[in-house]
Every structure is written in structure tokens, then in C-alpha cells.
Fold this protein.
Amino acid sequence: MKSIIGWALAAFGVIGFGIEIDKLISGTAENTVSGIIIAAVFILGGLALVRSARRAKLPPELRDAPVMRPALDSRGVERAVLACAQTHGGRVTIAEVAAGTQLSFTEAKEVLEELSRAGACTVDVTENGAFIYEFSGLMPRAANKD
């Protein structure tokens, strides 16, 4: 029922908005600003009711759960970065780590710089200024030639 009332309010607001715009175009507008504000309130209120009705249909665990990504501990972050580096042959950029893990670009940069300071990887700068982090322990080994 909430959803139906919400859509009706939103439709009423759209019609009111259209009427106010028509008055503005024809030059018979006296209280156009207040009419547009009232129409906007009806539209937003109706859409809020629709959203509330949809949210009420969700299971409680989804309805009440805050939207956030799971936090990783420092070991989890390092493992994620190392796994990403391993899938890229031991050489990664900050953007590749950010795309391949849950980390933001800034977080990926901080973790890679920390790993570089700890000696886990070396940093190479390309001609265009991109930083390539090389994990020699994760790079493919050359085949033994006997």
C-alpha cells in the first residue's frame, strides 16, 4: 500500500511540476517558485515512500545491515597484495592492486610502499612515470637448462 501511495504522490508532484512549467512558459505565473517547491516535495516524498516500501520487503539481516566492506587485518591485506602480485607474474602497479583487491587506490599505494620499505619488493619507474612493484620471489623462475 505504501508503494501505491508513494507512486501516486510522485505522479501528483510531476503533474504539478508540469503545470507550473506551463504557467511559466505562458507568462501567467504568480507563485511559480512556491509551486515548483511544493511539486518537488511531493515527488521526493513519494519516492521516499516507494523506497521505504521496498526496503520493508527485504529480510531483516539485509534491511538493518550497514553497507560497508569487511575490514582486513594487516596480514590479510599483505596476503591480498601478494596474491595479486602472484597473479600478475610478480610485477604490479598500484592500480592493478587496487583493482584486484578490496583496497582503495590510496590504501594500495600505502601497502606497496610499506612492503617496499620492508624489502619485500623493489620499485621500478617506467618512462611515463608509473611505479612498478617487483616481487622477485613471486616472479616465474627460469627453466633449468642442462
Observations:
- The mean pLDDT is 84.
